[in-house]
Amino acid sequence: MTETATSSADSTPPIAGDADVRRTADSSERAYNTIRKLLVEFRLKPGERINEVKLATNLGVSRTPVREALNRLASEGFVSLTPNRGFFVRSLSTEGLLDLYELRGILECAAFRLMCERAEDTELRRLQSYWEAIVDGYRDQPADVILTEDEGFHMLIAELSGNPEIVAQLASINARIRFIRRIQIEHSSHDRTQISAHSAIVAAAVARDVEKGVELLREHIEMTVSATQRALKDALLRVFAPDDGAGLKRRRRVGAA
């Protein structure tokens, strides 16, 4: 009798709600991947208000997974949420970009100094191991993978500084520049030979060569922001340039008036 009771208990069917939760999670993930692709390919225009109902209809899902996907994209810096107005595609603008990169440089250089002062040798080897694990295929990866691996590299330096506030602030900056960095990585100006820069930064960290490491980081970030500005300019032209010269002529006439 006991065995029968136990067997019966073990074979209890899953709660019906579990399947619903899985379906919602799958729908949310599918909505996220689709909307992110639309954003990256500029099929949703910068500054445009996102129509959640239309997206849900096109995707064949309810608004709930679309809203979950948009909240996730907002946390990653791809869209912004305006209270009482909804979600908007992140604008392409140089406004504030230089300030964010300047702050990023300050934080990362400070993190490198603290890491060299505080981290154990085993922790510094974590940075070395992280880079060695991805370096061989780094330049040949898709843009999303390169962005993720690059952020992981720099966030690990922040983590090894031992200061959680630096980690939090750098994560916030990354979220605000991620959309633009994603554009830059796919642009022709992206220098995939930055592998040597990362390798040199790792070597300086392992040697606890603070001044060399800080110099390398500063140059690395300055080079990135320069390339990002070029990529942003080209992206704006690609998104907003008219298919023919009519729109440009109209703007010129308005300007002349």
Main attributes of the structure:
mainly alpha, 2 strands, 11 helices, two-stranded antiparallel sheet, 257 residues
Architecture blueprint of SSEs:
Blueprint: H1 2-10, H2 16-40, H3 52-59, H4 63-75, E1 79-82, E2 86-89, H5 97-118, H6 121-134, H7 143-160, H8 164-186, H9 195-206, H10 210-240, H11 246-256
Antiparallel strand pairs: 1-2
Helix pairs in contact: 2-4, 3-4, 5-7, 5-8, 5-10, 6-7, 6-9, 7-8, 8-10, 9-10
Low-pLDDT stretches: 1-16, 244-257
Judging from the principal axes of the Cα atoms, what is the shape? globular
* Count of helix runs: 11
Integer average pLDDT: 82
What order do the strands of the largest sheet run in, or round the barrel if closed?
1-2
Q: Biggest sheet, open or closed, and with what strands and sense?
A: 2 strands, antiparallel
The protein's oligomeric status is single chain
Q: Got a strand count?
A: 2
The structure class reads mainly alpha
Which percent range fits the helix content?
A: over 70%
N-to-C span: 94 Å
Q: Beta-strand percentage?
A: under 5%
Rg, nearest Å: 23 Å
| H-E order | HHHHEEHHHHHHH
Q: Explain this structure to me?
A:
The chain is mainly α. Helix content is about 70%, strand content about 5%. The chain is built from eleven helices and two strands. Helix 5 (about 95-120) crosses helix 7 and helix 6 packs antiparallel against helix 9 (about 195-205).
